[in-house]
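If you are new to this repository, start here. Below is one unmodified record pulled from the training split, so you can see the exact layout before writing a loader.
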Amino acid sequence: MNIAITVEGILRNTANDALISTGSGIYHALAAHHSIYLVSDDIDHEAVRRWLRLHGLDRHMKVIHNRHAADRRSTTQIRLDAISQLSGTGTKVNLVIEPDPAVTAELLAQGYPTATLTLPNFAKPEWRPDYTQAPRPWDDLVAEARLQADTHARDPRRTAEPL
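And here is the target side for that same chain:
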């Protein structure tokens, strides 16, 4: 199979340039038995190649770059054009792995099998930068526990006859 994987958001975290371990695992698992083509919408093509080498991502057939400094197209259009460019070479694209659901929808509309990989940015609410909830005072916790116990005790569904 010929599989296209988007670099930004699948392999590389664009916020901090870190390797995304889930994406790396998918890359290596698929590269063992399939032809991998990478799609990058980064303007600095050589930096992308260096970053891939640095992280041991060197088992792909080709990196498709079709964005330039003066490019005014949206990220969605850049990625769609990259997949069309790959198909235009005679390569049948069997699967595209993409992080953006909007791009995935467009790829599906154009007839490409797709998988959308979305990763949680914050596994716990307190990890969010906008998290402001302070610990609740002990009395509030006791009052909430009592309220829930009382509400549960008065719930008519607990004592109702079966239907």
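Two things worth knowing about this chain: Helices lie at 21-31, 45-54, 75-88, 101-109, 138-154. The chain has five helices and five strands.
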